[in-house]
Amino acid sequence: MVKEESLFDIFLYETNHLLDEMETKLLEAETNKKTDKEWIDNIFRIMHTIKGSSAMLNFKDLSELSHGLEDVYSFIRDNNIDVNSISEILDISLEVVSFIKEEMKTLAENGSLKKDIKPLKKKIDIIFKNIKGIKNQGSILEMEEKVDGEIKYKVSIKFKQGCMMEDIRSLDVKNKLGKISKVIKTIPVTLKGPEACKEIIERGASFFIDTSSSKKEIQNLLKKVLFLEKILVSPYEETYQDQLDVEVDKDNIHDRKHYISVDVNKLDNLLNNVIELVTSRAILEARALKEFKKSEKIESAFYNLNERIKELQENIMDIRMVPIKKVFFSMKRLVRDMSKKENKKINLRFVGEETEVDKNIIEDLYNPIIHLIRNAVDHGIESEEERKRLNKPSSGTIILKAKTEGGNIIVSICDDGKGLDKKAILNKAIDKGYIKKNSRDITDKELYSIIMKPGFSTVEEISEYSGRGVGMDAVYEEIKKLGGIIKIDSKENEGTTINLVIPLTLSIVNGIKIISNNINYIVPINAMRSIFKSKKEDIVKDTNGNIFVIIDDKNYPLINLNNYFGESDKSIISNKIIMLIEASEEETFAIAFDSIEGEYQVVVKAFPKYLKKCTKSLRGLSGCATMGDGTISYIVDVTGLALELNKKASE
């Protein structure tokens, strides 16, 4: 078929969104052992929507598969069958979600489907036959519930034209009203079926309720209902006609937020244009101030221009920021499937899932977090019997946390399992030649960093999930690409915490321009802690020749930029400026350079790929920037320098 590009893109976006929603609801139902009428209606609606949109684009297999599962949930809904009494329903529903997700990826790549639906469709048919013999058991909700009470309010609603499934949406409204009131009666009397749907489309729906809640509380509750166009909440009087008086609740409409979907490539192009604008503004400002010397009017004009560009830039960056919860919630399925195969009980919890990060970065976080979750389930959490022997709860716990700190986001993967085996890691590291046999005084921090070496693994048997020595190495490489660092903390029989410290965005940097050996550098300002002139007595060396600077009676590793990125004599440290840098909460070091020029806002440009292949001297640099005078400054990668220091310490 010849596909309509925009329609096809909308189909992919909406279907993936619906599948994520459905997977979340299925996993919650399995965890909570509880479903209700609203839950079943939601699953039915998702399958109904995917069926219709697939058929519209002539993807017959997807339409047939979703239609089969839709029929199952339609029968469940019509016969009040308890979903949790038949665990196979949730299993097959999750299989369907996984199947369609994989097909969505295939469609996005080449526009066609490749998998055969027959095996899965056969499973659905078998389950459908089994549940047909189950009727009127474990009733979820009586459709015509008789409630005594005095009618206090009449709530009248009307949905937006073309929103579809108005009968199901009306049932959703009834269920929501039922949480704060007693619903005495409704118009139509029966809120489901084609006839009810037709009447609701033409006249709307009305609910007569007995409640102690105020009119405003009822209105606020209904604001959360999708596609509601008009609402009227009125005190009920006996003479009041039982029909919908269509009036607009203006407060409700004005308070509601509106959303649109935008192609992320358009946002990337917009951001690139702003980046060029920042550079052009810097060049123009430098030349104008040089031409007009000290002009208050010119300086004031550029100040106002800078503020407007900064505001525009922040608005665009804010649009690109998305909550990390999508990454977190996608791990529910992974933990659920692995715990079943490993025969372990595991609870997955989230903290800070609303924390926002740049969309381009968030997409690169999936694989590292998946690797770490697999390690936690496979290696960290013990079996139920082992946990009981250790006087631990029979169910293990994995916590995914996210928080912002300065210009970084910190993602933590914590488990309450057995922790890292330090002895096994040490022996393996000695066998591999990573450390010397007499290095028994190696710190935990140095030892744990070794597990990120390529091919390093203490697992003797290769399993479905681990044992090939590529897990932590892959995580290290992915986080390094993002300019981040990995911090590991572990205690025997208490658990392991792995922190991923990553910049919130990689595009624009506020920094301090410094000069070392006639080369310009930009140090991110959020990493800088202090600047001072060096004294000879503050500089010390250890037996291996490593240089340290003493600040407030503490020793910090010192990098001489003249030598690190050049060929100068590293022993010459006198009369240098020292900058103390905090790459993260526990990674602090200092750099020495010649002079400091001032604060700048610069746009990060990536190094050409061929340059990265030609030289290793780019380690510790994340890119470059064009300055206002046309010169080039190199962006100091503080996390990269911290990694290099850690590597040196472990060698």
Report on this structure.
By secondary structure, the chain is an alpha+beta fold. The protein has five domains: 5-131, HPT domain (Four Helix Bundle (Hemerythrin (Met), subunit A)), CATH 1.20.120.160; 153-255, 2-Layer Sandwich (Alpha-Beta Plaits), CATH 3.30.70.1110; 265-322; 330-503, Heat Shock Protein 90 (2-Layer Sandwich), CATH 3.30.565.10; 508-650, Roll (SH3 type barrels). It has a six-stranded mixed sheet. A five-stranded mixed sheet has the order 6-8-9-11-10. The protein has a five-stranded mixed sheet with strand order 20-12-13-22-21. Strand 8 and strand 9 (408-415) form a beta hairpin. It is globular and about 90 Å long.
CATH fold-level assignment of the largest domain = Heat Shock Protein 90
Reported for the largest beta sheet, the result is:
6 strands, mixed
- Summarize model confidence as the mean pLDDT: 78
Instruction: Identify the CATH class of the largest domain.
Output: Alpha Beta
Strand portion, in percent? 15-25%
Distance between the termini: 59 Å
Number of helical elements? 21
Known CATH architecture of the largest domain: 2-Layer Sandwich
Instruction: Label the structural class.
Output: alpha+beta
Number of domains: 5
**Unreliable stretches covering 5 or more consecutive residues:** 1-5, 136-147, 238-256
| CATH homologous group name of the largest domain | Histidine kinase-like ATPase, C-terminal domain
Rg over CA atoms, rounded to whole Å, is: 31 Å
What's the number of extended β-strand segments? 22
Strand order of the largest sheet: 14-18-19-17-16-15
Globular, elongated, flat, extended or rod-shaped: what is the shape? globular
Oligomer: single chain
Helix content range: 40-55%
